[in-house]
């Protein structure tokens, strides 16, 4: 019977790959990757010589058909995302749903590790025993309404933001007096953490465009 391993990979620093994750990636019959070009960097770093196949949000029926064949052949599969833990703001959940629907006896095993969410929580410096996580905010529809709810929330709110929208987000929150903690490029060479109001952090980023690069994790205190 096939096993499906859900394997967390580094969010930046490749040294954050766990011993167990490395073993599973080497032992699995096939590794499914959100972007094989990204995962190849891990393969090259740790000399992993395994079958690498693609699974992402735009995967088609033929891709699922290939995975079904792996399961029919009792092959063990490892699923990885580009960075962090599969299923957190990526298409990992879709694959698990398909597997459970057609192959309910398949053993699904978590191999936990890096996550931008937990990395940010660990350095936020505020009480986060309860919080609301929103993943990536919508680009357009419903965005303004959600921003208003974030500003008025009685729990801390955490969300991901891209380089293309971080300035817009801070501008939309600039009248909110709440404290923000923003992590940029977590675990990477240019990791930066900003603390202050949306207006204060906005001014910092607008003065230095070099800091408006990479991926951002935003924490809005209650």
From TrEMBL:
Family annotation (InterPro entries): 4pyrrol_Mease, 4pyrrol_Methylase_sf, 4pyrrole_Mease_sub1, 4pyrrole_Mease_sub2, rRNA_ssu_MeTfrase_I
The reaction(s) this protein catalyses: cytidine(1402) in 16S rRNA + S-adenosyl-L-methionine = 2'-O-methylcytidine(1402) in 16S rRNA + S-adenosyl-L-homocysteine + H(+)
Domain Tetrapyrrole methylase as annotated: residue spans: 3-201
GO molecular function, one term: rRNA (cytosine-2'-O-)-methyltransferase activity
Any GO CC annotation of this UniProt entry: cytoplasm
One of the Pfam families matching this protein, by short name: TP_methylase
Subcellular location: Cytoplasm
UniProt keyword annotation of Lipid biosynthesis present: no
Entry EC no(s): 2.1.1.198
The entry's keywords: Cytoplasm, Methyltransferase, rRNA processing, S-adenosyl-L-methionine, Transferase
SUPFAM superfamilies cross-referenced by the UniProt entry: Tetrapyrrole methylase (SSF53790)
Family: Belongs to the methyltransferase superfamily. RsmI family.
Its biological purpose: Catalyzes the 2'-O-methylation of the ribose of cytidine 1402 (C1402) in 16S rRNA.
HAMAP family (alphabetical): 16SrRNA_methyltr_I
Descriptive protein name: Ribosomal RNA small subunit methyltransferase I
Native organism taxonomy: Bacteria, Candidatus Komeiliibacteriota
């Amino acid at each position: 019977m096939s096993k499906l391993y859900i394997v967390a990979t580094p969010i930046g620093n490749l040294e954050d790959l766990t011993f167990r994750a490395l073993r599973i990636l080497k032992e699995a019959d096939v590794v499914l990757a959100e972007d094989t070009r990204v995962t190849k960097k891990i393969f090259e770093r740790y000399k992993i010589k395994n079958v690498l196949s693609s699974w992402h949000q735009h995967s088609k029926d033929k891709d699922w058909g290939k995975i079904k064949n792996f399961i029919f052949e009792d092959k063990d599969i490892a699923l990885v995302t580009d960075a962090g833990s599969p299923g957190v703001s990526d298409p990992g959940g879709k694959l698990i749903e398909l597997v459970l629907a057609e192959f309910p006896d398949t053993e699904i095993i978590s191999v936990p590790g890096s996550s931008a969410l937990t990395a940010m929580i660990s350095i936020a410096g505020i009480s986060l025993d309860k919080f609301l996580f929103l993943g990536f905010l919508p680009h357009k529809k419903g965005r303004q309404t959600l921003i208003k709810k974030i500003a008025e929330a009685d729990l801390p709110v955490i969300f991901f933001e891209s380089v293309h929208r971080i300035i817009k987000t801070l501008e939309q929150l600039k009248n909110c007096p709440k404290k923000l903690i923003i992590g940029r490029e977590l675990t990477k060479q240019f990791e930066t953490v900003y603390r202050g109001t949306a207006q204060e952090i906005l001014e910092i980023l607008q003065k230095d465009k070099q800091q408006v690069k990479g991926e951002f994790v935003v924490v809005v205190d209650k």
